[in-house]
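Summary for the funding panel

The consortium committed to producing paired sequence-structure records for every protein in the target list. Below we show the first two records in order, beginning with the earlier of the two.
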Amino acid sequence: MKGIVITGNRTVQLAHFEDPAPGPGEVVVAIQASGMCGTDLHRFRAAPESGPAIIAGHEPAGTVVAVGPGVSPAMAREGARMMIHHYHGCTICNECRTGWPQMCTGGVMHLYGRNAHGSHAPFMKVPADTLIPLDERLSFAAGAAIGCGTGTAWGALERMQLTGRNTVAIFGQGPVGASATLLAAAQGARVIALDVAPNRLEAATAFGAWQTIDPRDTDAVARIRDLTQGKGVDMALETSGNDTACAQTLACLRPWGVACFVGVGARVTFDVYEVLRKQLTILTSWTMSFTGQRACAAFVAERGLNLDALFTDRWPLQDAQRAFLEFDKQERGKGVFVPA
């Protein structure tokens, strides 16, 4: 089979790999949708890395086509629709056992698409305990989104303890920020969505944003305070990884407000006294737990949320270079590879 390899300097390659076969405790999934994640752009833009070629992609959804020895039918069966939790650890440390394999302390953490073969290919081999059933009400593309981008938004809102009483500013309306807007609005919160791309702000309105702001057109913090009678927002979520947006995330909060940082690549600096005297809570959030991914999928299915509207581009594997160049512009919605 052929899979996408990120080779750096804004290039990718479609390389040949052997078709995977499951070993004990493993399954092979035929990938029906593999989402594109903004974190892959850091490697796409960077200098080439040394080491073996690794198939990219960590937002998989598909159908089980082969089951290895020792896998319980209750865990996986051929033909089952599945998402994949894209981390796998030692399985025995406290972090793994509580559903956080990305924080594994056993020293064997695999991140699919990074140090183990990922999902930008027709097939993917994974341990069966990474599988999460995909509700029939959800498309494979929706399952792929929940596998990282939408699941990351869910994890952040959970850490922030968002409620329907809150007003939240969401900086960045790329795939994670747009997902956060959709999920927060569905929970009854008032969302102020910020981005510099007009089409992303239009999408945010469709996803339920109460107000939208283009920071290029106005002082974003002043505008947020105008919208909140001078008080500031209860909560702010930063998803863009932009230095200026990070500063605005803190500046737009009311006393006792909560800030959460999800976007990577930025540096955050602040005056401790300014934060201290407002009694702010500052959080980070790293994707979601295994159970969080399952809970996010259940919420989306039960509320009938249209995650498919996140996707503006669907690509075959052979168009990988063009797909990444378009995604690199960060002007549109989410992209997904459809290998089948």
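The next record, for a separate protein in the list, is shown here:
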Amino acid sequence: MKVLFQIRPDYLRNPAGDTVQAVSTGRELKALGVEVAISPDPNALLTSFDLIHIFNFTRIKESYMFFLNAQKQHKKIVVSPIYWNPENFLRRQGAKPQDLAVWKLNQPMRSRVAEGSDLLLPNSTLEADNLTADFPGHAPCRVVPNGFPDAFPAIGPEPFRRRFPALPAEFVLCAARVSPRKNQLGLAQACKDLGLTLVLAGPVNDRNYFNLVRPFPNVVYLGTLQGEILASAYACAKIHALPSWFETPGLSSLEAAACGAAVLSTDQGSPREYFRDLAVYVRPEKSGNLDEALDKGLKEALNLSPLPLTDHVRSHYPWSRIARLTLEAYEDLLKGNIPSAAPVK
């Protein structure tokens, strides 16, 4: 089987969850014998490929062009939407009104992709429900979760401790793009209130927002961490906190749990489907209570045993298992085993 992954042109220069999902899935599919190529070219010649797999139609313009090109060349189209309606976030206090207007303006393109593809691979049943609410005529869905690197659990805290010996023994980690959606500003204030060091690891998506977060005396910014050193950071952290406006479910939360950290997560999006009652949740949209909720959540997470969540995540979400589920979906599609009204699995 030969599959072409299509993703936005800046997926490596501006890495995000779609980058991790595409690269990790592709690597593990290759281990299963699938030929996988990645191309950001909206005019790619598709003759040699059995199907086209498009990642992310939240950022729709590039994905829409990939979709049109695949349709024109009569190829089977699989889409990982990575979709959650962000209107609550776009209506928050301080948001730019034009961002909500642009989102709504682009919804018809998302609708056409959702309805015209052959198979959608949402990352959760909750995401599938979100798709149904916004695009009721969408293509069949097969749930394929997000995952964590299989090698991460074997990496202990020592590499991180050697590189950053000045950090305190206990700290809160947030490994994510620094941006308003990820809510590091509220997290920094809550950690300051509790006398906790907050370690931030990730690219800066919004420089003005970063300039609000960075001056907190309890905040340490390490830049972007990857691979072994990132896994080691998770293993060192007392808590990994991601109180975003929404997540599907937050790749760094999955990775942190797999490495043995307690998890504090947003309750918006699909985290509860992954982490059940084994994590601590906060609701960021209740802005008046956010500081109080984060304070309470961090205190609860400090006393939470991470072992049940770690065991659960390690058994269900390694990328090797996710790739097998993806391959099963491809095979069923190519064999015609996915009916037009296929149920969510």
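Regarding this second record: DSSP finds 14 helices and eleven strands in the chain. The mean pLDDT is 94.
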